Amino acid sequence: MRPRMTVLAAAVVTALAFPVTACGQQPTTQPRAQFDATIAGPGMSAEEIRRQDATTSWADGYCRAVSELVMSLSTMPDIDPSTPQQASRTSSELLGVMVGGLDRTIESLDRLEPAPSRPAEQVKAKAVANYKGIRKSALNAMRALDAARDAEASRAAIGSVRGPLERIGRVNLLEGFAGVPELSRASARAPACRQLTDKDPAPRFGDGVR
């Protein structure tokens, strides 16, 4: 089991094919200056410019929120298979890192300004629900691992790690953006979104455990 888990732990970062540290960098320009180059358009009214600017800013905040998870998963430890107890303990630690990243992403998404449209709000709501579901699965697995008191129980609990890892591996960080034209366009303008989509328009952590 260790090779598969270790590969996923390393792959969740490299699968995005961009430097994870870039996601945590603060912009060197003020927010308005960031988007000045994107809001000008021939024949656009002041209201259209305002709405486009607001949508781009919201999308950028969304991408920064999901980047919190990317950064957390980059620090997931390897599973130590030397003994069943060690495998159980390190698996719990790995899931703890995942839960921490999910918590920060969910909190950041909840702190976003109101979405620019109902479809955008639905995209966020679906993502939050998915992340909460993965978090619950990871917590249940952690409890099983932490409750294991002997080698046999540890071996049985290790199997519970697979579910949340597979689910996180299938996550598309910008799920739903392509189906909402204003978000699709905004993600092409927002700096944090461009970092996520530089190599893949549907950035994922990986294919999970096979």
UniProtKB/TrEMBL annotation:
The keyword Signal applies. Residues 1-22 form the signal peptide. Keywords: Signal. It comes from the Bacteria. The keyword Signal applies. Residues 187-210 are annotated as: Disordered. Residues 196-210 have a biased composition (Basic and acidic residues). This is Lipoprotein. The lineage of its organism: Bacteria, Bacillati, Actinomycetota, Actinomycetes, Pseudonocardiales.
